[in-house]
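As a warm-up, study this chain.
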Amino acid sequence: MAADHAPSHFSPRHHPVAQRLGPRRMMRNAISALDWLSFALAGVLTHWVRFGLEDQPLDAQYAQLIFGAATTMVLVSSMIYRSWRGGQVTAMLGRAALGWLVTWGVVMTWLVLTQTGDYYSRLWMGYWAATSLLLAWLTRALAYLTMTGMGTSKLVQMRVLLVGSGDAVTAVRRRVKASAWSGYRVVGVADGLHEGDLNFSVQNLKPDEVWICQPPGNVEVIQHILQALRFSTANIRLLPDMGMLNLMNHGITVVLGLPMLDISNSPMAGINLVLKWLEDKVLGLLILLLISPLLLGIAVAVKVTSPGPVIFRQKRHGWNGETISIFKFRSMYVHDDKPDSVTQAKKGDDRITPLGRFLRRTSLDELPQFFNVLKGDMSIVGPRPHAVAHNLEYRELIPRYMLRHKVKPGITGWAQVNGFRGETDTLDKMSDRVKADLYYIENWSLWLDIKIIFMTVFKGFVHPNAY
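Now compare it with the structure written out below.
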């Protein structure tokens, strides 16, 4: 009898064109093409505005620079695109700005190394830089709107049947709704417990894909669902409900040919590690050069206002829990702490010097840590390093506390710009800080780092809890 019913399940796919096009591949290819055109068109148009088409036609050297920059933007944006999560247009524009920034960094570096910067008009390059960013934003916004509109059409629409129930199904439906550009549309939900109901849904809804939403341990239920779908030609995907596992940077890694689920993973690998290294070295050196007069002035002030060394060093835990020594301007009178404990500064603490009180409230005492950044012990952005004694205490009290060390500690971080700084005199305060740190690690991107740096400049230095 099963064979008699088999042909009804082997009906042609509902949207073969959709399968051929692939909405996400279309999006990636469209963005790459538009990025190239944006950079190239901006270069040519601004050359015409700057010099005039008749007075100075586009020569070979200008054309080569434009072509090289446009190609670099495509390479950079293709890497950044793969890390784009969700379907928000603001995230897409942010990635475009990040790709633009990296591309221009590469162009400027190349001009310096080849000593060809004097050949090109600086005014033209300024016009080109500004126009290329505006065009990149405009074309990406248009691509986003186009794909969102096409996602509701039958041309690129992918019909999805969800098999499961509960929070997992709700979360998937919310994600699909928020990512209209992707072309996926949930056409129905089946609990998967009754083979007849599941077969009825497949036959009548004709899904292109079936997504099974089940907890990892429901092996028998998953096998039952796969058995019921044995005649379906739809793409079948397993979306295990991982909410209970509290994952960090989850994903699938293939090791020795074996797919493995990442339970706890650092985002600092591959291209991310290279981008983070460049950010720290380039920005760290630039900032140090800019603040060097300030550093010298503070050093002199610390030396003349109280006896003791200018720089205070303290052991902290860094990346992967390794012990590092961080630098700070000394803000307290010289005193002895017990080797196995560190007493946090409190409001009105008489150990703090008058100058030190100002330095701590404005975070200027942290500036020597840019030398830690160049040394490689710290990053500009990351979870603030806690004293070793505090780590030994709080790792026993706060779940997932030590996951803060999946990245290098930072001079500033997501916790600091959101108000979680200063004395942590209660467990709840420290817990809130840790949650913010873990959010940063889970959602890390170069764009988030740049956002935190800007937030630090405008509101992260002075805080009433810093004393």
